[in-house]
Amino acid sequence: MAAGEATDWAALAADLGYADQGHFVRDFKNIFGEPPTWYAQRY
Predict the structure, then answer these.
(1) Within a 13 Å sphere around the CA of 42, how many CA atoms are in the beta-carbon half?
(2) What's the chain's Rg over C-alpha atoms?
(3) What is the pLDDT of residue 3?
(4) 28: closest CA among 41, 7, 13?
(5) Which end of the chain is more exposed for a tag (fewer CB within 10 A), N or C?
(6) Is the pLDDT of residue 31 over 80?
(7) What distance in Å separates the CA atoms of residue 14 and residue 41, rounded to the nearest whole number?
């Protein structure tokens, strides 16, 4: 994110052990209060 490059959320979710991107996004939103794409836009 810091480099400003596009993030492959599905690949990141798989790397972190999630079965699918949706599960990762739900967990991220529960922890940070916003979806990862919104979070990434600020950084």
Answers:
(1) 5
(2) 10
(3) 75
(4) 13
(5) C
(6) yes
(7) 21
